[in-house]
Amino acid sequence: LRLLPQQRYLWMERAEVSALERKRNVLCCLITRILKVEKQLHVDNLVFRVIDACQKGELGPGVQFLSFCCHSVDVLSCILHLLNQGYLRRQEGRPHVLEY
C-alpha cells in the first residue's frame, strides 16, 4: 500500500474556508457593536455602516483591523444569521428596523 501526499487544492479549500469564517466573524462583530451603540437601526443604514467600517478597518473605538472588501450580500447574510441566532430582532410593525 502506497500513501499519496495530500493534494494542494485541498489545502487551498481549507484556507479559503478559514478566511471566510474569519470574515463572517468580523462582520457579525461589527453588526453587533454598531447595534449596541445605536440600539435600533434601519437595515439599509446598518449595511452601509458595516461596509464603511470594513473599508476603514475599524472595529470600534480604538480597535483596528486590516481592512477588507465586503459586499452588501455578505453583510445581509450575517444579519440573517444573527436574526436566526436570536442576537438581533426586527421591530414590530417596522420589520426593516433591527434592534439589538
TrEMBL record:
It comes from Piprites chloris. It comes from the Eukaryota. Coiled coil: none annotated. InterPro entries: Cullin, Cullin_neddylation_domain, WH-like_DNA-bd_sf, WH_DNA-bd_sf. This is CUL9 protein. SUPFAM superfamilies: Winged helix' DNA-binding domain. Residues 19-96 form the Cullin neddylation domain.
